[in-house]
Amino acid sequence: MFERFTDQARAAVVQAQAQARRLGHNYIGCEHLLLAVAGTDGGAGDALRGLGVTPQAVESATLSMVLKGGGGPVLDRDAGGARNRP
Asked: What's the CA gap between 24 and 21, in Å, rounded?
């Protein structure tokens, strides 16, 4: 699946996984992807922040809807292990 992703898209998934782990969530959801993208420079990150969608606001909203913690691994395999294969 990851072989079709751009480098930026793979980086967003890896960052989303890191955000999910940091929050103690045992899954990667759209809220983690939004949190990852909102924290990037350029492109989508700048557009989101221009609309007032900051990483802090996304994290606050996420934590108000999803309990912090939850334990367990985020994935069976790390997203960072995905490689771009020709």
From this structure: 5
